[in-house]
Amino acid sequence: MWSPKRQEGHTKIVGPAYTVKYVRKNHGTDPKVQGHYIDSIPAGSVVFISSPPGIVNAVYGGLMSHRAQYSGAVGTIVDGRVRDLQEHRDLEYPVFARDIGTASPQELLRVSAINVPVRLQSEDQEAIISPGDYLIADLNGVVCLPKELAEKAVALMASQVEADERIAEDLKKGRTFQEASKEHRANVKFIADEKGR
């Protein structure tokens, strides 16, 4: 979290993903995107920008936050670098990113697609962010909840939160975590992944 504050505060964003895919200028023969992606953001969405790996140029800046905020976006997540931190912070507009940079993307990059599935740039995780997936971001980081699992996940959340609250109360009274967890999480269901884990 870089804005409104750097890893501080109660900022939280939740909303459906509006994806933007950047590629190197010499990449493939994708058709040119008409207009600017920032002008078609749906209200209530979270802008997710994918930048190619190894790029030090920022792909998102202050002017983009001005327009995104006016459009009703709830925040922006950049799988890459951002710039113009003070502008984002002055707007109190939530921005999450891997890092910061100073150079603009124009010399090296171009937008190749809007609202298409994009791959997370990570050697540690295999993840795809699709348009409409729910993005949740706060001080702890960013989570993508696939839209096809959203209804199932929401149905399970209340019991998980309640169990954790009861465990916390027991821990304040001196009970061990193992005892409290065994009692309060015994009947709580969690979402399994595609392998049933």
From TrEMBL:
Query: Gene3D superfamilies annotated for this entry?
Result: Ribonuclease E inhibitor RraA/RraA-like
UniProt-listed CDD domains: RraA_family
Give me the segments passing through the membrane: none
Q: Which InterPro entries does the record match to this protein?
A: RraA/RraA-like (IPR005493), RraA/RraA-like_sf (IPR036704)
Q: What PANTHER family is this protein classified in?
A: 4-HYDROXY-4-METHYL-2-OXOGLUTARATE ALDOLASE (PTHR33254:SF28), 4-HYDROXY-4-METHYL-2-OXOGLUTARATE ALDOLASE 3-RELATED (PTHR33254)
**Name of this chain's protein:** Uncharacterized protein
